[in-house]
Design brief:
Among the domains are: 201 residues, no CATH class; 179 residues, Alpha-Beta Plaits (2-Layer Sandwich). Helix content is 52%, strand content 9%. It has 27 helices and ten strands.
Length: 609
Amino acid sequence: MASLPTLTLIPPALTLALILTIAFTLMLTDRLRPDIVAVGVALSLGLAGLIKPGDVFAGFSSSAVITIIGIFILAQGLQRTGVTRMFGRFLDQANRGGERGMIALVMGSGAFLSLFMNNIAAAAVLLPGAVDAVKRRRLMPSKIMMPMAFATALGGMATLLTTANIVVSETLTVSGLRGYGLLDFAPIGIPLTLAGILFMLTVGRRLLPARDPAQLQPQLANGHALTESYELFERLNRVHVPPSASLVNRRIADSGIGKEYGMSVMAVLRDGRTFLAPSPDEIIHANDTLLVIGRHERAAQLAQYGVIVEPDGRFEGEIVSDDVSLVEVMLAPRSRAVGQTLRQLRFREKFGANVLALWHGGRSVRTDLATIPLEFGDAMLVHGPRESISLLQSDSDFLVLRPPAAGDEAPIRAQRAGVAVAILAIALLATALDIVPIALATMLGALAMVVTGCLTMDEAYRAIEWRAVFLIAGMLPVGIAMERTGAAGALGRGIVSLFAGLGPVAVGAGLLILTMALTQVMSGQVTAVVLAPIAINAAQTVNSDPRAMAMFVALGCSLTFITPSAHPVNTFVMGAGGYTASDYPRVGMPLTLICIVLIVVLVALVWQP
């Protein structure tokens, strides 16, 4: 196949540097989504003639991308059959040892789950159970949530099934070298995980912030405490509807309270009874009193309808009942709701529940909720019938932060739980024994999940994080371009020159530190794509084992402990733990230094670069 003509006015290496600089700038400034940037990078490399036309889209058929798709589907099979739900119950029932015991439990569970599923998915599985266990035992969540997040990264170092590890392995294969096996990371990752847990149980536990549970983020509250955390009743208004009011005989949906004034009707008081979470189709009667959540000045404008508005900062009744629940809901990892408003999602119509308040930008918002674009880390105070909560729990875009009550659980296929575990075990065993390549094993497992009824095909499609797929597929051609332009060799020689005379281990340590630093500001997947070819060329320059040198890069991509933005899991637990950005380096920096020392020593012993 003919290649596109290479731009002759600019040297190829400089053209590549320009494309990558623009791409990284767009990623770091959030001007465009990373997956869009990645596809743009692949197309730009092709148009500039830095790679062959056939290589532009080669990432989409790479074994790395196929493996990642298979892992997403396998993990979803475990969730839909209720296997992962057992971990939430385990956290609630197993710990009787207080704070130290809970740290050990959440870290052990997080590390174990991340061995065979995405780190974000592992955290999403554990978070509701961890939040409830913390609340029940009156522990400080600031002592629990960060260790859980860090454990998912530590556990990911012990398996090939972490995205960055898969990408580095694919780079080795493309370079004509043997990729990593499923268990190649275990001799290094398992000691790292144990060391990380020991650190968090001792020194790290003392470095974690200790904050009063009564002043924590709303994710840890319940019932009236939950309304207090959101300061819900500070925006409570009583709207009395006399017989002469024009709202009489109107549906709540037609009253303008929500659409025009941006407020929510929490309850209707009628004939001495309280009707909680009224339907939008509920008819307003004469002499009703509506309990409306919203700004007082906004509520005062309802007087034009002939009603009497009284701001009221307290509510003595019960906001929940046998039929109505009040729950905390977060956006799930990979939620399609990110960037959309409640109105665009048709949240009220779809779920039959009302959002009374939104925890957004570090504060409680109670007015104009329908027009605010949702962000990752936002939480919603949702009020509605129990069947609505059950519907929410079954939706993969949302995460209900409490264990389901009896009869309130999202439907699962518990009778297929054993089948799902068996499928996963067979797929991993086939990979570990080199019976079939990992991409083939994971996709066969994914197909088996659907064929055996653990998942429907639609659920399998929804389980795939397509943004991650496009990000990785779009960036993989960068490695090819770095090889063809000579950039990888030049950078590899540059790194070697910095550590001339110190030996291959020192070169690997330098790559490890560089990888860790870059991972703090851009995703580990992108860092792996850029640095893996450099590591391979550096190894060839010093006559070292390329697989050993690439191992430094793969493991460095998991050192995401220093900033909340280094990994989505850090951001995910930030609100639940009540953390500030400064909490992460205080705990994460010493943990990172310990991991760096251990990685250098263990790679030197196990791989002998």
